[in-house]
Design goal:
With about 300 residues, the protein is of the alpha/beta class. The protein is about 45% helix and about 20% strand. It has twelve helices and 13 strands. Strands 5-2-1-6-7-8 form a six-stranded parallel beta sheet. Strands 4-3-11-10 form a four-stranded mixed beta sheet. It has a three-stranded mixed beta sheet with strand order 9-12-13, with helices on both faces. Strand 7, helix 4 and strand 8 form a beta-alpha-beta unit. About 45% of the residues are buried.
Length: about 300
């Protein structure tokens, strides 16, 4: 199958590189120095104990004119609208689109704009980032690289044969992969890891190690935010269970103490960030389901006052 990876950062770069290394037909959508480096030298994945480089196709969104079988959408939430022209041009009824974003419910959002396309929901567990143009770092000794995807509740199961093939080819590429019958629950579970951590760290300008401390405002806020996501899930009919914050800390154990989240990194650099999807959207969902989420509301108000976008 032909794979199109929209976004060649820490997430998309790893997915595409692993698939290409396994012999699959992969094209990245990239830009700037990252695009030029991949075009000239290929994409390099630096792991804790080894590294590899693989040559793939690469293009700008404007220049791409192929018809992929599978599209992994790996951009930031704020870029979704900007890639819609590419998706509408490149995708047909036989295309399967899998968004791999930090923000809960992205598949349903994209499906509204692509009614004839099979748009699934998905999420990923990975700690990776662009080290330099053309190079993606996976620095942890305890490498976690897991993709979960599936049809949403009530969604027509189109292109099932191709969906099964995606799972097979990801596994053959060395990616831990699961097809999920309850993808909304799995995606919200991932969101309960990344959103509270991102919100707490950006609010306190802190690091992961501050959350791991047994006491302190950063840890307390993280725990409260996670509990609010748990409560939101229950209001939506999704039970994430008890002890969620502790479980998520175990899942995130591969992140070094001095590391932070992509949300925090973007804010520190003054770049556009996923504040809308990771913080403000939670408050809006709470209002939709008649639930007050005071800690999210506080951080959301603080971010707006600071002009953080």
């Amino acid at each position: 199958m032909k794979y199109l990876i929209i976004g060649a950062g820490g997430t998309g770069g790893c997915i595409g590189a692993y698939l290409a290394k396994s012999g699959n037909d992969v094209t990245f959508i990239a830009r700037g120095k990252h695009l030029e480096a991949i075009k000239e030298k290929g994409i390099t994945i630096e792991r804790a104990r080894d590294s590899f480089t693989v040559k793939t196709g690469v293009s700008t969104a404007e220049d791409y004119n192929g018809r992929p079988d599978v599209v992994f959408v790996c951009v930031k939430y704020y870029s979704l609208e900007s890639i819609l022209p590419l998706l509408k041009r490149a995708c047909g009824s036989e295309t399967v689109v899998i968004p791999i974003l930090n923000v809960f419910g992205t598949g349903a959002v994209l499906q509204e704009s692509l009614p004839e396309v099979t748009v699934l929901d998905g999420c990923i567990y990975i700690y990776s980032f662009i080290k330099e143009a053309g190079v993606i770092s996976l620095p942890s000794e305890n490498l976690i690289f897991r993709i979960n995807f599936g049809y949403r509740k009530g969604q027509e199961k189109t292109n099932e044969k191709k969906v099964c093939q995606i799972k097979k080819e990801l596994k053959e590429a060395g990616v831990e992969t699961y097809f999920e019958p309850e993808i909304e629950k799995v995606a919200l579970l991932k969101f309960s890891l990344i959103s509270p951590m991102g919100a707490a760290l950006v609010y306190y300008d802190a690091r992961v190690g501050d959350i791991r401390k047994k006491e302190g405002a950063v840890r307390d806020t993280y725990m409260q935010l996670t509990n609010e996501i748990r409560d939101l899930g229950r209001a939506m009919g999704i039970d994430l269970g008890d002890g969620l914050a502790e479980k998520n800390l175990n899942i995130g154990s591969s992140m070094p103490n001095d590391s932070t989240t992509s949300l925090h990194r973007d804010v520190l650099k003054g770049h556009a960030s996923e504040t809308e999807g990771l913080i403000h959207r939670v408050v809006s969902l709470g209002e939709k389901y008649g639930l007050d989420l005071p800690i999210y509301r506080k951080i959301s108000g603080w971010a707006k006052e600071k002009g953080i976008k």
